[in-house]
Specification:
The chain is 27% helix and 16% strand. The protein is α+β, with helices and mostly antiparallel strands. The protein has one domain. The longest helix has 12 residues.
Length: 107
């Protein structure tokens, strides 16, 4: 724990919340994502789209997170295009999780 008692993830959450204040992007806190070995982590979800889990983020990653969330929110197919993602989200992708509608039955 840092000397001031504020965890880096909390600082990032506060920075992302502030950056998203006048946007259509909703920021929520989920507590622990169980991804301690990969550093600060963020999940991104949207109705009808796949969910994303990113790690290895820094306290200074708020702008990249917001840019990625905007890209994801405006995507026509529910995916976050890899090539257009900010570098922190390219490097830190841990998982892309399908919706139930995207799952296929086994033969």
């Amino acid at each position: 724990m840092p000397a001031d008692g504020v965890r880096p993830g909390v600082r990032l959450l506060e920075a992302v919340s502030e950056a998203a204040r006048n946007t259509d992007i909703s920021v929520k806190s989920a507590g622990c994502l169980g991804n301690c070995r990969r550093g600060i982590s963020v999940a991104m979800l949207r109705p009808g789209g796949w969910s994303y889990l990113f790690g290895e983020l820094e306290e200074t990653s708020a702008d990249d997170i917001l840019a990625g969330a905007a890209l994801f929110a405006t995507s026509s197919d529910g995916f976050m295009p890899f090539g257009a993602r900010p570098e922190a989200l390219k490097r830190g992708l841990i998982a892309r999780i399908p919706t139930f509608d995207h799952l296929k039955d086994l033969p």
